[in-house]
Every structure is written in structure tokens, then in C-alpha cells.
Amino acid sequence: MPKLYLLGGENVHKRSAREVNEKAFQDAGESLSVAVFPWARASFDRRYWRRKMLTDYFVSLGAGAVDFIEYSDSQVTIAQKVASSNLIYLTGGLVNALVERLRKMSVDSLLRDYDGVIVGRSAGALALCKKCVITCRDNQKARLVEGLGLADLTLKAHYKPRKDRTLQLLSKGGTIYAVPSRSAIVYEDGVYSFIGNTYVFENGKKCRL
């Protein structure tokens, strides 16, 4: 079973969640090889400028190799890249697109059988959960989306207090974990730990963890 780092969000340019990533990279061990899934974006432009930025960032955290897994890769190639990595990183973007693509290429099965560390940022974190809360920026509307279920919880990433009313209403039907940017839930074998400020909404009530 993998060890999951569910990161609420990060300004990668500013490396604002470096503390979380440092812990994840330390957990992954030495001679670190990182496999990145940039599949949450609408397109797969190889000139995507964040690729170099992410590579430089991860090298500064101790990675010896950083490999981007292309959506055009065969399932055999994807499986080989995953197997040769110590840490898998799922980027932010469109959670629905990410979940659909991971399932279509059978990556969900690879992730469940993976024995290393998986870091999901924003959409990447949401995709790893059983359910995730998607909220609109302009209003309080929200909806629940099915994730891959590696973590048996419902997650709201990029949490901000202005969404409290929405989360209070949704939590009357279940428990919701709310994680701001720069904070994370660490999940392993059903056990939770927390980095930074994280919150739980249950039965319409909010509690800080």
C-alpha cells in the first residue's frame, strides 16, 4: 500500500509547501526517482513551462531523477516508469479529467499496488480520495465527485473559511476533511496525520485537527 500525501494546494513557483514536500521526499528514501503525472491539465503540451520548474524543485528536494509520464505512453511504459520510481507526484488541474484519464489507462490499479510515496497536489489529492468536494469560485455551489478511493475519505482542497456554510451543509450527510493550501493530510493504511492547519466538518459542525 502506498503512503499518501494529500496536499491542499501550493504555489509551485514560490515553493510555498516545501515543508510538506520535504517530509514526503524524506519518506520516499534515498536515490530518489520521481514519476510525475501531469494529466490534470486540459492539454499535454510538452513545452509546459512548469515541467522545468517542477524538475528544479524536486532536484532541490533530493531527487536524482524526475520523469514525466506522458498520456501518449503505452500502458507497459507507464507501468515501467511507475515501478522504477520511489515517489509519484500528481499535479493540480481538472480533477474530473485526471480521474477519467487515470482509470482509462488503468493507472488506478498501478497506484493501489504501489509500495512507495504518492503526493497529490490539489486535483491530484482529490483524485486519490473516495470522494471530493468541488466548489465554484464565484458562489457557494458545490458538488461531490467520485475519486479513485485510495484514501477512504471525502476531501476539500484549497479550503478557505468563506466556504464554511457550503461544507457545513454537505457534511450533514457525511464527514468532510478540508485542507488549505500549504497543508496536508498524510494517509497510510487507514491512519491519518496532519501537516499544517487542517479541518473536519461533521454533522454540520467544523473542528480544527
Describe this structure in words.
With 209 residues, the protein is of the alpha/beta class. The protein has a single domain (3-208), classed as 3-Layer(aba) Sandwich (Rossmann fold). It is built from seven helices and 13 strands. The strands form two sheets. Strands 3-2-4-5-1-10-11 form a seven-stranded mixed sheet. The chain is globular. The mean pLDDT is 93.
The N- and C-terminal alpha carbons lie at a distance of 25 Å
**What structural class results from the helix and strand content?**
alpha/beta
Strand content: 25-35%
Rg, please?
16 Å
* CATH architecture identity: 3-Layer(aba) Sandwich
State the helix count. Answer: 7
Average pLDDT figure? 93
The CATH superfamily is known as Class I glutamine amidotransferase (GATase) domain
Q: Helix proportion of residues, in percent?
A: 25-40%
The H-and-E topology, N to C, reads as EHEHEHEHHEHEEEHEEEEE
Could you name the CATH class? Alpha Beta
Extract low-pLDDT stretches.
none
Strand order, sheet with most strands: 3-2-4-5-1-10-11
What is the total tally of β strands? 13
Query: Major beta sheet, specifics?
Result: 7 strands, mixed
Shape: globular
Count of folded domains = 1
Which fold name is given in CATH as the topology? Answer: Rossmann fold
